[in-house]
Design a protein that fits this description.
single chain; alpha/beta; Alkaline Phosphatase, subunit A; 2 domains; 4-stranded antiparallel β-sheet
């Protein structure tokens, strides 16, 4: 009886997908430096995330979504749908020759906005070049500090709004200004299909008070240190959650919730020196590391009345998968000339798992392939096992910190077969080895 009910459940979802023929509005929110362990819905107990908890309850939560270990590689992979081995050439840079999902959606008639953190090249013309009609961004035309060395990303920030630099000391917090702009954009474009891409500035260091902190100071001109004080990380997680809630509330208030898909994720794991609790186990920050705490990020999707609520999805998701998924959402046929590596997870929103990934391939270099001195890492993984070029094989489900490499002699027959399969996957990418040089 239970099996019959499950089949009926998935058939009803597929039916909904067929009925929903109109391309939805798309809001993609990507938090900076937030491992999955920070959210209550993933077992986190160190911080309060009520709005994201509700988003998980109302939509779909993905248990195996993986980013790159650090910011720029994740941004490049997400926006282009390609392996970093093809196009990540330099830190804080995206090659203008690359095609982004925003360019494709803009060409199809979407109104487009990017808001938050840029970090893809210091040129005010780039947001428009990459397909965004409007922008409000930090770190577009500067490295983010003023002439005295103060960090200008949070209190009294330096932002660029549609090419014009804002640097007024009005006691404002950048997140508030950016969410205000997003919500205004949503209201202005409510009668047209729109894309909002929000690579959030929170929760990246410096760890500082937010407007909800007891010691928030509107006269603070910016952090003097890169890290700030980690005691404020919890306040920043809370304010991030509150700010996402403001966007969801705006969508609901304008009665757009059935016409708008909201996607929430993060660009990599939590930053040092933060240690968070998950299911009564301490999880040290993993940003910059290739282990699970560096790449395992939250992925929540909300689309009221269209996808089933409260569903936990165990399938593997790679950051290259967002591009083809967004094109499927927008009813845009994927051009093979785009040379995408991603696999659309759009069918999974409606219970169709026939095309789900069997593995994720990753090539990682922090500084990009044009730097011959930067350490590179290359691996293949599934939900349980991970194999690095160089013959390191781990059961990451049981050994998430990769402390116990499996030797050939102690492997089961199935594990040996899987390692051989992973070796063949790595060979598939050998021809790209010198592409970036």
């Amino acid at each position: 009886m239970k099996k019959i009910l499950i089949i009926f459940f998935f058939l009803s979802l597929i039916s909904k997908a067929q009925e929903y023929e109109k391309a939805p509005n798309i809001i993609l929110i990507m938090v900076d430096d937030l491992g999955a362990e920070c959210l209550n819905s993933y077992g986190g107990t160190s911080y309060e995330t009520p709005f994201l908890n509700k988003m998980s309850e109302d939509g779909m939560q993905f248990e195996n979504a993986h980013s790159m270990p650090i910011c720029t590689p994740s941004r490049v992979k997400l926006m282009t749908g390609k392996s970093n081995k093809k196009n990540h050439v330099e830190f804080a840079y995206l090659n203008p020759k690359e095609k982004t999902f925003s360019q494709v959606l803009q060409s199809a008639g979407y109104e487009t906005l990017i808001a938050g953190k840029w970090q893809l090249g210091q040129n005010k013309k780039l947001p428009k070049h990459f397909g965004f009609d409007e922008h409000i961004l930090w770190q577009l035309n500067t490295r983010g500090r003023d002439s005295t060395g103060l960090d200008k990303r949070y209190s009294n920030p330096r932002l660029v709004k549609n090419g014009i630099t804002y640097e007024e000391n009005e006691g404002r917090f950048s997140t508030d200004m950016i969410v205000d702009y997003i919500n205004d954009f949503i209201e202005r474009k409510k009668n047209k299909p729109f894309l909002v891409y929000y690579p959030m500035i929170l929760t990246h260091c410096p760890f500082v008070p937010t407007p909800h902190s007891k010691d928030w100071d509107a006269n603070d001109m910016g952090s003097k240190t890169y890290k700030g004080d980690a005691k404020y990380f919890g306040d920043m997680v809370s304010y991030m959650d509150f700010s996402v809630g403001r966007i969801i509330d705006q969508v609901d208030k304008l009665e757009l919730s059935e016409k708008t898909i909201i996607i929430f994720t993060a660009d990599n794991g939590t930053d040092l020196p933060v240690v968070s609790m998950k299911n009564n186990i301490s999880v040290p920050a993993g940003k910059g590391k290739t282990i699970d705490s560096g790449t395992h990020v939250p992925l929540l999707i909300k689309w009221d009345g269209v996808i089933e609520s409260g569903f936990l999805n165990e399938s593997l998701i790679d950051f290259s998968d967002f591009f083809p998924t967004i094109l499927d959402l927008a009813k845009i046929k994927i051009n093979k000339k785009l040379d995408l590596d991603g696999v659309s997870f759009y069918p999974q929103l409606f219970g169709d798992f026939k095309s789900k990934r069997e593995w994720i391939y990753t090539w990682y270099s922090r500084a990009g392939g044009s730097n011959p001195y930067d350490e590179t890492h290359e691996w293949v993984r599934n939900e349980t096992y991970k194999f690095y070029r160089g013959n390191r094989f781990y059961n990451v489900k049981n050994d998430p910190y990769e402390k116990n490499m499996l030797s050939w002699n102690e492997m089961t027959k199935e594990e040996r077969s899987l390692q051989n399969d992973f070796v063949e996957v790595l060979k598939m990418y050998n021809h790209l080895r010198n592409k970036l040089k």
